[in-house]
Amino acid sequence: GGITAEEAKKSSYLNIVGMVGSIDNDFCGTDMTIGTDSALHRIMEIVDAITTTAQSHQRTFVLEVMGRHCGYLALITALACGADWVFIPECPPEDDWEDHLCRRLTE
């Protein structure tokens, strides 16, 4: 059913706040959505774990993070771990990105 006038009057003091739970951090009006910080923490744990392996084997690792249409997690992770390359939806790569990436890896 619906809320009766009497029920509405009894609860007229009730304030309701909606909290955005999204790892994408793509909701305007907030500094950081719920879930973003814990997602970044987990990603950095994984980066720390694979960095030693990558260095000891002299290998390049490609890490894909969550984010749907928002590159916030990828960008912040790249900044935090000193990545050489990052792809984010907000800034698509140039047409010859494959050649440029191969040159960087060769160097």
From TrEMBL:
<dbReference type="InterPro" id="IPR000023">
    <property type="entry name" value="Phosphofructokinase_dom"/>
</dbReference>
<dbReference type="InterPro" id="IPR035966">
    <property type="entry name" value="PKF_sf"/>
</dbReference>
<dbReference type="GO" id="GO:0003872">
    <property type="term" value="F:6-phosphofructokinase activity"/>
</dbReference>
<comment type="pathway">
    <text>Carbohydrate degradation; glycolysis; D-glyceraldehyde 3-phosphate and glycerone phosphate from D-glucose: step 3/4.</text>
</comment>
<keyword id="KW-0324">Glycolysis</keyword>
<dbReference type="InterPro" id="IPR022953">
    <property type="entry name" value="ATP_PFK"/>
</dbReference>
<dbReference type="GO" id="GO:0016020">
    <property type="term" value="C:membrane"/>
</dbReference>
<dbReference type="GO" id="GO:0006002">
    <property type="term" value="P:fructose 6-phosphate metabolic process"/>
</dbReference>
<protein>
    <submittedName>
        <fullName>6-phosphofructokinase, muscle type</fullName>
    </submittedName>
</protein>
<dbReference type="GO" id="GO:0016208">
    <property type="term" value="F:AMP binding"/>
</dbReference>
<dbReference type="Pfam" id="PF00365">
    <property type="entry name" value="PFK"/>
</dbReference>
<keyword id="KW-0963">Cytoplasm</keyword>
<feature type="domain" description="Phosphofructokinase">
    <location>
        <begin position="9"/>
        <end position="104"/>
    </location>
</feature>
<dbReference type="GO" id="GO:0061621">
    <property type="term" value="P:canonical glycolysis"/>
</dbReference>
<dbReference type="GO" id="GO:0005945">
    <property type="term" value="C:6-phosphofructokinase complex"/>
</dbReference>
<keyword id="KW-0479">Metal-binding</keyword>
<keyword id="KW-0808">Transferase</keyword>
<dbReference type="GO" id="GO:0046872">
    <property type="term" value="F:metal ion binding"/>
</dbReference>
<dbReference type="GO" id="GO:0005524">
    <property type="term" value="F:ATP binding"/>
</dbReference>
<dbReference type="GO" id="GO:0042802">
    <property type="term" value="F:identical protein binding"/>
</dbReference>
<dbReference type="GO" id="GO:0048029">
    <property type="term" value="F:monosaccharide binding"/>
</dbReference>
<dbReference type="GO" id="GO:0030388">
    <property type="term" value="P:fructose 1,6-bisphosphate metabolic process"/>
</dbReference>
<keyword id="KW-0418">Kinase</keyword>
<dbReference type="GO" id="GO:0070095">
    <property type="term" value="F:fructose-6-phosphate binding"/>
</dbReference>
<keyword id="KW-0460">Magnesium</keyword>
